[in-house]
Amino acid sequence: MRHTASPALSHFQRAAICYQQARYVEAIRHYLAGLKLDVTRHHIYADLAKAYEMVGEWDRALTYLDIALQRCPDSPTAHRRKARLLQEKHGFDALLFESGILHQPEFPSREFLKCLEKDGDDSRKPGSVLQEASSDYGQRAARRHTYWRADLGRFTLICDAAMSAQSVWYISQLVRRTSTEVGKLLRFYPTDPVAITITNTGGISTAPQSPLPRWASGCYDGQIRLTYCAEAGEPVLSILYALLRHEWTHLLIHRQLQHPFPNWLDEGLAQHIARPIFPYERHCLQQAVDNKALLSFAALSQPLSHLSAKRRMLAYLQSSAIVEYLTQQFGFAGIRQLLRRLNEGIPIETAIAQTFAKKLAEIPLAGFLSL
After folding, report:
1. Is the model's pTM score more than 0.90?
2. Same domain, 142 and 268
3. H helix runs in the chain, sequence order
């Protein structure tokens, strides 16, 4: 093993650097190359699993965590990562299952395919997208194309060409469901078409501030922009669905409200509608309660980009827990009433008192965990 130890260590060190720089595909390649030379380091398997998680390969991540635990059954890092990953996978998979998208026909409707185009291919003849999408189902779009585009009336969907037409079809159905469900909760529907762009970053994360895994992110800046970090071209639909619900909530709030409102309500409502709080996240909240480390409403009202990464994640958790508490205590009717008062220019403290008969200071900073 002596003659292979140094090259293996070099790969592992380069993998760690790539990971820190969010170059996850490169990190995976170096981890795998190093493991061909040295299979004795159990913690490398756990690190490789983390890199696979960052490119959306949950099943591979779990496989390598199991290998790490076979080699070191008492590894706290591997146990912690596996428990968290299983909670996330179960939670996001359940969200997608509840959407009903898995019960949709395997092939998209002909009406959808007629709306689907590939940008960047001027040589294609009318109808060729329909023929290609039907015949090459499940295969990635040709690299010469820039993106798929589908003008679907109430929204325009622009997706990375690396994903299949089938994925674009499923995403279009998730958009329709999101528009209906979130619109029903907030009693608001956009009057102008919504542009939604979904891009694969190609193995490089661009999501340092996302409340979701760093290999997926989103923002709303007048249109919805989603990114995912995948080794292959296909996105994880469950994650994109949560991202879409999160950003669609931002869209509805920002198109309704004409006056400033606190960031904790904006992000908390978006996150609460996007997905439930996972058990390990509640544990993190409980630790913050026990350590008296909760952020104040003043801190939660500021842009989260001003916070450190650790405090930012806590801010997302607290904001989601606060909104969870308000919705369970007063329902979404109370939330809608609060938003209407804020839209009238009423300060948040007064709006809270008028809507919930509580002072802002009486709202628990960690939701039900603070009670």
Report:
1. no
2. no
3. 2-20, 24-37, 42-54, 58-71, 76-99, 110-115, 128-135, 165-186, 237-256, 263-274, 279-290, 297-300, 309-343, 348-356
Structural domain of residue 49, as residue ranges? 2-99
- Whether residues 35 and 66 fall in one domain: yes
Is residue 15 within 8 Å of residue 51, measured between CB atoms? Answer: yes
Neighbours of 264 (CB within 10 A): 26
Residue carrying the six token digits 């496989």: 63
Euclidean distance between CA atoms 361 and 31, whole angstroms: 49
**pLDDT tens per residue across span 186-228:** 999 999 999 999 998 876 655 544 444 554 588 998 999 998 8
CA distance 306 to 106: 44
User: Between helices 309-343 and 279-290, what is the axis angle to 10°?
Assistant: 100
CA–CA separation, 147 and 118 (whole Å): 6
Q: Does the structure show a pLDDT above 60 at 156?
A: yes
CA-CA distance, 58 to 355, in Å (whole number)? 43
Domain shared by 286 and 321, yes or no: yes
Element (H, E) at 159: strand 155-160
Residue 369: per-residue pLDDT: 82
Query: Which of 47, 73, 99 marks a domain boundary?
Result: 99
Decide if 258 is inside a domain: no
- Which contacts qualify for 11-15: CB closer than 8 Å, 24 or more apart? 11/37, 12/41, 12/44, 12/47, 15/47, 15/48, 15/51
Q: CA geometry: angle at 278 spanning 273 and 282, to 5°?
A: 110
The tokens describing 326, both together, are: 């308000």
Residues 275 and 92: beta-carbon distance below 8 Å: yes
Structural domain contains residue 67:
yes
CA atoms within 13 Å, Cβ hemisphere of 325:
19
